[in-house]
């Protein structure tokens, strides 16, 4: 049986490997600014063409494209890939060799665990093969190409995101996708783990077809269908591309739809990922952290469901010390619409997003202010009650802010806005925090009574 290693182990190995040192033991390496340059061992190199980036621990040859998918063999850009190809050994042996260099002991796996990993690697192989077939199908399917074209999806998008079309494929795993345009879901490493199929009709046409089907008592068609067996909550669509851009900027943009991600990337916001319609999960947050995200911009529909989801995501992100922003979309707009006013592959869209994003606390306070302002202005008889209610709501937001400077700025602004003294707001926050920590102590130790 082929030996397999868990992803977590491989990640740890890659992180601990010093790629500059490893490549130095095979060829001459020189420091050039932030990066290193080496004589490429994968082609007959006379000028050093192999660039090593110590920050990402990756390599790339500017002459023969080793370390990218454009090279015929050396597609991986990491330490395991380098060793595998320079030593001309199979993948598991390269892993073992690197583990020896790094000084990590190999994980001791039970036969069941080995079998599980074997199954996973077979699944990925199948997905990759089927993905190629779907992709090829789409290129010969004029109707679907036209449908995608009408929605602004370019030929380059189709190649970047490996979009496909499932014809009458007989494989049982893909029966769900029959006659649908197919979006592959890639995992963090860029392997296809599942597909989502969408009928190639406009929403209006789909509705008409479904009404006709209902009249005839036939089954109606949902817009999207998935392959079975993969939990969407474990992945973020677009992450395999976005992770590099998130690492550079420390910022991730989160949208709901698949095509939103494709549009945002096309218009230059390549740090965008999608939760694919589900609420942000713990595992998805782990992926964001793995890519080094410190800030997240939520870009959601401004409807009630969107606001609720934003609220939920904010709570979860707070626990992980990731700063949460929102980009307020105008009523009825989605990220796709927003992209339309910007060119392809330039910086203007991102500039606009960074300029107009709001810390979620600010957004929430502005909302509370707007909702209560009518009562303050026109119902003078209840002004005290309104003022108090409003302050309590604002306090709910303020106590989530841990940074003292940030909090100070908010209190100063609010003092002016709400016409309440700085000290009064500050006292209220202190009082709330004390009450909360007492409650926490109580829940840990029910016998606890404050002195
Ligand atoms: Zn080369």
Automatic annotation (TrEMBL):
GO terms for molecular function: DNA binding; DNA-directed RNA polymerase activity; zinc ion binding. Residues 250-332 form the Toprim domain. Keywords: DNA replication, DNA-directed RNA polymerase, Metal-binding, Nucleotidyltransferase, Primosome, Transcription, Transferase, Zinc, Zinc-finger. One of its GO terms (cellular component) is primosome complex. It holds the Pfam family DNAG_N. It comes from the Bacteria. The keyword Transferase applies. The keyword Transcription applies. InterPro entries: DNA_primase_core_N_sf, DNA_primase_Znf_CHC2, DNAG_N, DnaG_primase, TOPRIM_DnaG_bac, TOPRIM_dom, Znf_CHC2. GO terms for biological process: DNA replication, synthesis of primer. This is DNA primase. It comes from Virgibacillus massiliensis.
């Amino acid at each position: 049986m082929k030996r397999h290693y868990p992803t977590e182990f491989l990640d740890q190995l890659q992180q601990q490997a010093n790629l500059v040192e490893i490549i130095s033991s095979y060829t001459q390496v020189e420091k050039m600014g932030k990066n290193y340059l080496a004589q490429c061992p994968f082609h007959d190199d006379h000028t050093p063409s192999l660039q090593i980036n110590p920050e990402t621990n990756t390599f790339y040859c500017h002459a023969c494209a080793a370390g990218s998918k454009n090279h015929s063999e050396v597609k991986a850009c990491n330490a395991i890939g380098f060793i595998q190809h320079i030593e001309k050994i199979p993948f598991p042996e390269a892993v073992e060799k690197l583990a020896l260099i790094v000084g990590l002991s190999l994980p001791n796996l039970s036969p069941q665990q080995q079998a599980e990993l074997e199954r996973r690697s077979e699944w990925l192989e199948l997905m990759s093969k089927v993905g190629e077939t779907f992709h090829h199908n789409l290129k010969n399917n004029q109707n679907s190409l036209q449908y995608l074209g009408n929605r602004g999806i370019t030929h380059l998008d189709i190649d970047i995101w490996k979009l496909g079309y499932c014809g009458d494929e007989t494989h049982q795993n893909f029966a769900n996708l029959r006659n649908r345009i197919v979006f592959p879901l890639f995992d963090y490493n860029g392997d296809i783990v599942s597909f989502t199929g969408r009928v190639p009709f406009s929403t209006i046409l789909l509705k008409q077809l479904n009404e006709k089907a209902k009249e005839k008592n036939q089954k109606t068609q949902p817009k999207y269908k998935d392959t079975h067996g993969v939990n969407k909550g474990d992945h973020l669509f677009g992450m395999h591309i976005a992770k590099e851009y998130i690492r550079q900027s420390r910022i991730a943009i989160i949208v709901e739809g698949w095509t939103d991600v494709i549009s945002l990337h096309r218009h230059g916001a390549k740090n965008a990922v999608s939760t694919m319609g589900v609420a942000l999960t713990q595992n998805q947050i782990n992926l964001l952290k793995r890519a080094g995200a410190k800030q997240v911009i939520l870009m959601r529909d401004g409807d009630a469901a969107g606001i609720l989801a934003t609220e939920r995501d904010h709570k979860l992100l707070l626990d992980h010390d990731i700063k949460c922003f929102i980009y307020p979309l105008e009523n009825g707009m989605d990220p796709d619409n927003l992209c339309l006013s910007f060119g392809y592959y330039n910086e203007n869209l991102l500039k606009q997003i960074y300029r107009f994003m709001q810390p979620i606390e600010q957004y929430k306070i502005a909302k509370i202010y707007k909702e209560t302002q009518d009562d303050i202005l026109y119902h003078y008889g209840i002004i005290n009650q309104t003022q108090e209610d409003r302050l309590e709501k604002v306090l709910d937001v303020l106590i989530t802010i841990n940074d003292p400077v940030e909090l100070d700025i908010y209190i100063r602004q609010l003092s002016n806005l709400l016409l309440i003294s700085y000290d009064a707001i500050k006292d209220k926050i202190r009082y709330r925090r004390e009450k909360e920590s007492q409650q926490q102590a109580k829940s840990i130790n029910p016998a606890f009574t404050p002195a």
